[in-house]
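anyone else get weird line breaks when pasting these?? whatever heres mine. first is seq + tokens for prot A
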Amino acid sequence: MIINNIINLFLPKLCGACSIPTLQATDQLCLVCETQLIWKSKPNKTKISKALRGRVEIEKGVFFIDFTKKEGIQKVLHSIKYQNQKKLAVFIAEQMARKLGFYFFKNIDVLIPVPLHPEKQKIRGYNQASLIAQGINNVFSLPVNTTTLTRAQFTESQTTKNRLDRWKNVQGAFELKNIEVLNKKHVLLLDDVFTTGATLEACIKTLQKGIDCKCSILTLVRV
């Protein structure tokens, strides 16, 4: 700890949200950003369900941080997705799990990160949704399944697409393998961002078409 703090004095660890130096080398956020993004965050348990109403059936849908109300979250998302900030993703997921608490997760059987296409994951080096699953697993030891729901198509980025084009872009993008392991299970799908819900809708439709399972959704952010 002392050595890390000495290193941090000369080569400071920067906050993943605002880029100012953190107090300790092991910190992922500065105290101000941690307070604003984590401790003052109020997980929303209604907006995702309303957004997907009439599209797919889910048990519950929750996002941790509202993009429009929190400064710094855009840089956090960019750092997690494109700058190899794996520890930051795991840290925020751990805090999210603790804040939601045992009762949110008590009926969940398995965590499923929204999969990337193997080529895209090879380029990026990791799947940020899997890091979220790792953080939750660190707190509640829930099993993580990354093999049953797979991405069969290399789709374009959803970032610049409108609602309709997002929906078209992910049609047929996912497929199932070894489906018996999820039969009669309550699945919690995990992703970094909920925007229009097109990707998560496609995942749920793929799961529920092939398996008798319940589905819920948890994301770090809603945009």
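and prot B, same format (seq, then tokens)
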Amino acid sequence: MELRAEAVSVRHDGVLALEQVKLTIQPAERVLVLGWTGAGKTTLLKVLAGLLRPGAGTLRWDEADPWAMSLAQRRERQAAFGMVFQADALFDSMSVLQNVELPLLRRGVPSDEATRRARAVLDQVGLGQALKTFPERLSGGMRKRAGLARAIAARPQVLLADDPLSGLDPATGSEITLRVAEAAVDRTLIWAATEPPASLDFGRWIWLERGRVAYDGPPRPALLELDEAVA
């Protein structure tokens, strides 16, 4: 799926979170979205996934405007997206297995198949022995893995990762990075963070500065040395 933002702007409580953002992301592209806290990274990911409607400008999914679709049509197309949130966003009243099954069931996957796929992906992220465990009993790293399992169980075309290593120790962070890389093979990966993850290469960096795209191109490590400004 090609994603295109055309002069997209978003306001939160009267403050511009995104301003005149223009970009196109091609299928199977690996994109790293960088910027300091409050730069608009999470907002951009939510806009691209059709979770947040722009106040101005247009979002395109393969030339289609998701906000011109009916709610049912938009939700059907959103099945192409999987999102790993900064906070794991698990339902505490559900077991790990139920949390991963839920998005599959909502997409109309038969119950038996949803269970089979959920078990398989939980095995993949190392949680095969925690199927009946509730989130409150999981460590931070295990919660992150459960959130990742939920995002990839539906086999999304586009995987969005919103600062997925936040709060993790280096070893757990390396494991999550590896799992995301495995899940993103031949798929679009858009990773948002304040710094690049180790051992994961991106062909393109987008630097956001106060809601604007200040840089869009090949990796440019010098950006990381700037103090909340772009040269």
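btw re prot B: The mean pLDDT is 91. Residues 3-91+157-225 form a domain with the Rossmann fold fold (CATH 3.40.50.300).
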